[in-house]
Amino acid sequence: MSSNSIVIVYPTEATVQERLAARELRRYVYLRTSRLLPLVQADEPPAGASGYAVAHEGDPQQYRIVTRPSPDGRRWVHVRGGREGGMLYAAYRVAERLGVRFSLHGDIVPDRTIPFELPQLDESGSPGFELRGVLPFHDFPEGPDWWSEDDYKAVIAQLPKLKMNFFGLHNYPEKQPDPLSYNAEPGVWIGLPEDAGSDDGDRRVSASYPARHFTTDSEVWGFAPRPTGSYFDGAAELFERDSYGAPYMRDMTPWPPGEQAENELFDRFGRLLAGTFAWARKLGVRTCLGTETPLAVPDRLRQRLLKQGLDPDDADTIRKLYEGIFARIEHTHPLDYYWLWTPESWTWNGNTAEESEATLRDIAAAAEAAQAAGAEFELATCGWVLGPQQDRTLYDRQLPASMPFSCINRQFGFEFIDDGFRAIGDRPKWAIPWLEDDPALIAPQLWAGRMLRDAADAARFGCSGLMGIHWRTKAIDPALAALAQAGWTPPPEADDDAVSGGDPRREGAIGGALVVLHGEEGGELGRTGRVGAEGYRLRIPGGFYRVRLLLRPWSYDTRGQCTVKLSVYGQSEGQAVSRIVELHGGTAQEPPVELTIPIQVVDGLLGLTLRPIGGEACLCAIEVAGRPYEADPALGDAYIRTINCGGAAGDDWEADLPEIAVRSRHLPSGDFYRDWAAARFGPEAADDIAELFAAADGALPRPIVWVTGPGSTIAADRSPWALVSLDYAFLDRLEALRERVVGAGNLERFDYWLNQFRYLRSAARIGCELGAYEAAIERTETAADPQSRAELAAELLLPIRLRLVRLVAELNRHLLATVSTPGELGTVANTQQQALHRIMIRDGERLEKLLGRPLPPDARPSSDYSGAARMIVPTVRTSLDRGEPLKLTVLFLGTRPDGAAVHWRPMGEGDYRRIPLEHVNRGVYRAEIPGGDEDLEYYVLDPAGGLRFPATAGTLNQTVVRIPD
């Protein structure tokens, strides 16, 4: 061996993870330095050489990296890791020390290469939680409902890079009598053991029932079924067929056509799980799958059971069905955990003691069935709550101590980690915070500080697992990166933990000073108030209410204006109804300004927040009146509560509540964002970008709300855009930083977020126009006769409609500029089939009826794309099995490629080979790189349009390593 050889050495009897770690080290050294190091199998570092020495060493999941001189004066970086992923974590940590970062959607490699040198390293690591990972949630197109097997494997391959080792899936049951809210999903088959296939290689089920994952033909969750070919503003080009969904859903829409197809769908998805979960096991990632309890017996299966003389509700029958579930899993795909979810309704409506007992019996039946079936996986619990409301720790005393307990945060993650974990005994405990929430699913969300808080709490409560629930993969990048970081190094307990008194949901006023506006304190309503308050929290039974507020101006800005943004929350600071209020006058003789807001209180806590925009307002009174879900028999259906802000009790008004200190839902995220921004956008503007992201973290405006489904509605806002636009001042500053971002990859990543925020701002502008439209239609529809209504519609509504069409095109242009993963394709479908369908289709039909004539062409949405030409590769595999071909789907917007091709070669070696793209339909093209044993690199080039993938193609290509057998 040459005296100046630098190599990567790994043992002669290396495990799969040792061999993969060596290949991954070679890949990232090559990407950062352009130097491709030889791989050498040897049990000792070769004499006369330097380099990286890879070998298993240490406890499971731990790693150790140290640079040492060799006896012959050379230098070796010893990359050591324990079993169960530790070896891979060591290799990926070296990559991070070289400047690489990782996310679920792919690798983040800096644009600029660095000189090659062996780094001087001395560090070790062990995780703060035994299990760390993700729960990609089915049921919406933004999530795994639209993933192919390639997408599953692409995501799972990123988990060890993030030093994560858990991948879980939830499976919705069939819900009766409302099948349009929850479809039975094909992730878990339910049936008798004799229908579950066999261990002799025949994995096909012989009987099943209707099931599906989301397609554009689905009508669940408020979606209006629409062919993708009818999408507005060029979005149709992204989809190869009108009925779009995951590959296994092809020819299965809107439902599988008959019993044979129903069986085939379960078999297709079973094969997908077989490949996916075997892949996960190879990478040291544990898998989990499960259903809700008590077990929901699908109607088709129920009828078959009755014909066989079996009672579908009998405990013995339920146990047999669990035996069937577990038998099919055992001979279909690997699995580490099967979790049983407490019912979703428990988080919204609570539970009775009888319901708690039914769930406990169901879990016991599952445990008996697992033992009878000889299941090789463990049972675990999960749910929307930790346990029954009567006692969150009840099941801890009832179920085996080896069974892990887990739950997602309540209120879409706006609630803290359940402190009931603190009281759970010595068993595995998995906290599952929300990386994003579904009420605003189509909008960008920044929750890095919230992840840091949840990780700190989970560590304090003794949790051994930390997983994040999500749908999208790229839009959650900051939150996911923070969660991954905190899974190894949980943040220390913050100073405000002691302030909260252990109860972040206490009732009271948040800050502010009590003032007497005129006269004596008390007495006439409006004499007193609270100035400078951040808001109030009120304990209110869940239900529907109208919140009436009385406000007065207290001070004015330099323009003589007093303006305040008022938000009312019905779900623990989750989805809000906001109004921007301009206050005038304010003398003792003038009445206070009155504002009424309708709100749904979901979980017993109503919140008010006040944010001054110009001057400062004084809140004088709060009245909450309405109907609880469960009315008090003594009070009838009515509920009313009144608070005399700043004053004493009197005239049926309650005295002002005491001031409370409220625990911040987020930990500071400035340090996190500085590293995050530098890695993704380069050093030139990283600090300024990080400052803007940290300020927006947990505080992004939310103009999109849940009405019928996830992100279904752009909320009408009657406030003027001049005031609402103040919420988006950060975007002006971010746009100004673009010219300082250097490098094609950095700029592409920056533009992704820039367009996400532009899209959000466009939604808010649409909301203001919808507010104006709402007010105008109220006036129009009160006209006495059709002719008058038609005239008012033409005068008032049509001009707003024309502006809405232009704004919708703008919104779509920004949204389509972000499409880069299956999750963004799902967001396109969601906006097209929910929010924009209501605005452009339903409201358009209503306007035509008022006008008495068809809309003019410029009042109709366009089918044409108006943005810059784009080339998109939505699924990016970074690793393959030996011999596995690389299948590429390439999407084009705004152009028809001429001569576009994939160029590939073995990584770092030889000439590139060219494979032309084959046209499928619309803007969809495909190509396939043949299977082999070598690692490879490739890029996609459209010479006519000047488009390339990746953005750094030619200097920094996409690389793929082979996972050895």
Structural class: alpha/beta
Q: What is the helix content?
A: 25-40%
Biggest pleated sheet: 8 strands, parallel
Distance between the termini: 28 Å
Estimated share of beta-strand residues: 15-25%
- Total number of beta strands: 40
Rg over CA atoms, rounded to whole Å, is 29 Å
Uncertain residue ranges = 498-502
Q: What average pLDDT do the residues reach?
A: 92
Q: Number of helix segments?
A: 19
Biggest sheet: strand arrangement: 13-12-11-10-9-16-15-14
Shape verdict: globular
Describe the structure.
The chain has 965 residues and is α/β, with parallel strands linked by helices. Among the domains are: 121 residues, Chitobiase, domain 2; 148 residues, Jelly Rolls (Sandwich); 159 residues, no CATH class; 94 residues, Immunoglobulin-like (Sandwich). It contains 19 helices and 40 strands. Helix 1 runs parallel beside helix 2. The longest helix has 38 residues. About 1% of the residues have low confidence.
Question: What's the topology here?
Answer:
Blueprint: E1 5-10, H1 16-33, E2 39-41, E3 49-56, E4 63-69, E5 75-81, H2 86-97, E6 101-103, E7 106-108, E8 122-125, E9 131-136, H3 149-161, E10 166-171, H4 259-282, E11 286-292, H5 299-307, H6 315-332, E12 337-342, H7 345-349, H8 353-373, E13 378-383, H9 394-398, E14 405-408, E15 429-432, H10 448-460, E16 465-470, H11 477-488, H12 496-499, E17 508-510, E18 513-516, E19 528-531, E20 535-539, E21 543-555, E22 562-569, E23 576-583, E24 593-601, E25 605-614, E26 616-628, E27 639-644, E28 654-655, H13 670-681, H14 686-696, E29 704-705, E30 713-714, H15 721-724, H16 729-736, H17 744-781, H18 786-816, H19 822-851, E31 870-872, E32 879-881, E33 886-893, E34 901-906, E35 913-916, E36 918-921, E37 924-929, E38 936-942, E39 947-949, E40 958-963
Helix pairs in contact: 1-2, 3-4, 6-8, 10-11, 13-14, 17-18, 18-19
